[in-house]
């Protein structure tokens, strides 16, 4: 699943905000029991690993000039929640990029 979020920030600012706020991603998962790991294989890609309720989901965030793309690999058993997950990513992704 790919969820693009438009922005008008310099890439350096997008990187800074994502690095500063990546710890908040666990709070976006319902139930409050999520474990989130992040990594930066290069300056424009943040990897994500989310574990909650016995399920693991991998993803990445791709930083582009005018958009940030959240890519999430949902297991087939969770494909029915894709619209709900995409909506949550749009809403919470905007919050990650917003000024504090």
From TrEMBL:
InterPro entries on file: PHA_gran_rgn
Domain of life: Bacteria
Pfam family, one: PHA_gran_rgn
Protein name (database record): Polyhydroxyalkanoic acid system family protein
Organism the protein comes from: Qipengyuania spongiae
């Amino acid at each position: 699943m790919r969820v693009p979020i438009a922005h008008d920030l310099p890439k350096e600012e997008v990187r800074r905000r994502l690095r500063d706020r990546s710890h908040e991603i666990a709070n976006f998962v319902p139930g409050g029991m999520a474990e989130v790991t992040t990594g930066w294989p290069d300056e424009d890609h943040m990897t994500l690993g989310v574990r909650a309720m016995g399920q693991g989901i991998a993803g990445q965030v791709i930083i582009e000039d005018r958009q940030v793309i959240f890519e999430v690999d949902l297991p087939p058993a969770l494909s029915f929640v894709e619209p709900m997950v995409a909506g949550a990513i749009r809403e919470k992704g905007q919050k990650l990029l917003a000024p504090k």
